[in-house]
Every structure is written in C-alpha cells, then in structure tokens.
Amino acid sequence: MVNYYVPEAKRKLNIAFIPVTSHLASPVTDYISKFSKAGEISVTWIVKGFTCITCAVVLEIMLRQQKGVTRAKASYSQKSVAVGFDGKPASEKVLQKFIAGCGLSVA
C-alpha cells in the first residue's frame, strides 16, 4: 500500500499495487466492452502526459471516483484510457476537463 498525494484532488490516495498481468496485452477497449452495461456510454481516449505506470493507475482510480463513471481502465503502455459512464452527471466534456485538471491531455 502506498500513499500518493494528488495535488489536484487535495488529498492522499491509498493505492495497492497489483502485479501487471496479461490484461494489458489486449486493448483497454476490450476490457470496457466486455463489462459494459445497457445504456452505458463507452469512450476511449489517447492520453498524453503519462510519465510512469503510477500515473495511469492514479488516473484510473480518480476517474472511478467521479459521479456517473461506471468503469475506467487506463493503460500506460498504450497511453490510453477507456471510460464507461451513464451520462449523468458525467459527460465526455466533463471527463476530458477532469483529466486535463490532472495535468494530462486528451487527444
């Protein structure tokens, strides 16, 4: 367990690191599409600014904590993030702004 301070969130996150497994070998969109719920909106963005795998892990955790987000999977190796959300109150624009607030850019 590691305490990681996230300035944008103004709090510490406790992160348990799990060994990387073969799920990173398949695209993150496969992960989201496998577990999508009816009525869920799924998007995948290329993310610029990841400097290490921890960046992807923290982004994933922070996205999952946003209201309306049902799924999130970030990949450092693929420099992408796939997000599933119900559209209330989360929207593509709101989530992209949130990611930008974390010091990353969405392509």
User: What's the architecture in CATH terms?
Assistant: 2-Layer Sandwich
H/E topology pattern = EEHEHEEHE
Coarse structural class = alpha+beta
Question: What is the CATH C-level name?
Answer: Alpha Beta
End-to-end Cα distance: 32 Å
Stretches where pLDDT falls below 50 for ≥5 residues? 15-26
Helix fraction, binned, reads: 25-40%
Fraction in beta strands: 25-35%
| Total strands | 6
How many helical elements?
A: 3
Instruction: Note the overall shape.
Output: globular
Q: How many separate domains make up the residues? A: 1
Mean pLDDT: 77
Strand order of the largest sheet: 4-5-3-6
Q: At the third CATH level, what is the topology name? A: Alpha-Beta Plaits
What is the makeup of the main sheet? 4 strands, antiparallel
From the alpha carbons, calculate the radius of gyration and give it in angstroms: 13 Å
Describe this structure in words.
With 107 residues, the chain is α+β, with helices and mostly antiparallel strands. The protein has a single domain (27-106), classed as Alpha-Beta Plaits (2-Layer Sandwich), CATH 3.30.70. It has helices at 28-34, 53-64, 92-101, and strands at residues 2-6, 11-15, 41-48, 69-75, 80-85, 105-106. It has a 4-stranded antiparallel sheet with strand order 4-5-3-6, sandwiched between helices. A hairpin with a 4-residue loop joins β4 (69-75) and β5. The longest helix has 12 residues, at 53-64. The model is unreliable at 15-26 (pLDDT under 50).
